[in-house]
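Quick start: what a row looks like.
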Amino acid sequence: STSLHSSFFADATTPSSTTKTITPKEQVDRNGRTFAIGNTVAITNKKVIKAYSVLKSGYGTFHPTTREFLPHDDDDANYLVLPEGLRGVVKKIYNTNEWD
């Protein structure tokens, strides 16, 4: 009978023993409060904040008073302008130093 097991991998080590785990750097708002997964946050910045990782149908902006969505007419405007007051829940915290 032929054995399906091989001694080729007998001395292999698992990468988990040598892999460095990168944890996200703590993110803090201007009031010193730490962001945590599950927190509700709101945009309070008066500057334009653009979101690029959206579907093409989401390219546009919101009317400042009616909050109606206005799609971009310009094909070069491949982003969504996030309005002041928009609220959301923190789902993931990224390590901002991971790619340094």
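That is the whole record. The beta strands are 40-42, 49-51, 60-62, 69-71, 80-82, 87-89. Confidence is low (pLDDT under 50) at residues 5-9.
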